[in-house]
Amino acid sequence: MVPEAERTIKSVERPGTGAYTRGAIVPDGSSMARPLVAPILTILGGFFILVGGAILALLGTIFAWLFGFGAAFFYLGLAVGLVTIVVGVLMQVVPRASKVWGGIAIVLALLSIPTALAGLLIGFLLVIIGGILCLAWRPPPPAAEFRVVPPTPPTVPPPT
């Protein structure tokens, strides 16, 4: 058992908010505990890729019906859009693997060019920017640890 004076405080009050956080306080405020903009852009781009994939799947199905060939390739855009959305969610949920998620997002954006009309170009650009931001994000430095110092007893002046 560690004595009270040797324990380390893990919860620190955020200045001015009255809220407590565990290990996510950053002294200079320059970095966040998880990427914020990258997942939002990636999820938004994933929806555009999904729409582009749906348009291409619809057109592919019509052409397959008219000309009698397989339409399996045209449905890949839907899968790319769904996986892009999942990667965007994972960027937010598992920030430790941000480099992996950023790389996967960029690869999916490139895959969306032939399979989902590049997400109507907007989705492609949003996912590329989100992937780059996720690759550039770095975790905050470890939170400063504060030690509990027991109060010193008041000194009583010697009797005179």
Report on this model:
There is one protein chain. The protein has 160 residues and is mainly alpha-helical. The protein has a domain at 37-136. Helix content is 54%, strand content 6%. The chain contains five helices and four strands, in the order βββαααααβ. The strands form two sheets. It has a two-stranded antiparallel ribbon. Strands 2-3 form a two-stranded antiparallel ribbon. Helix 1 runs antiparallel to helix 2 and helix 2 packs antiparallel against helix 3 (98-115). The chain is rod-shaped, with a radius of gyration of 26 Å. The model is unreliable at 1-14 and 16-31 (pLDDT under 50).
What are the salient characteristics of this protein?
two-stranded antiparallel ribbon, disordered N terminus, two-stranded antiparallel sheet, 160 residues, rod-shaped, mainly alpha
Radius of gyration over alpha carbons? Answer: 26 Å
Number of DSSP strands? 4
Please tally the helical runs, counting DSSP H or I stretches of 4 or more residues.
5
What's the pLDDT, averaged over the residues?
Answer: 80
Order of strands, widest sheet: 1-4
Task: Give the proportion of residues in helices.
Answer: 40-55%
The shape, in one word, is: rod-shaped
Which H/E pattern describes the elements? Answer: EEEHHHHHE
Report how far the terminal alpha carbons are from each other.
43 Å
Strand content: 5-15%
Largest sheet: 2 strands, antiparallel
Which ranges are low-confidence, i.e. pLDDT below 50, for 5 or more consecutive residues?
1-14, 16-31
Structural class: mainly alpha
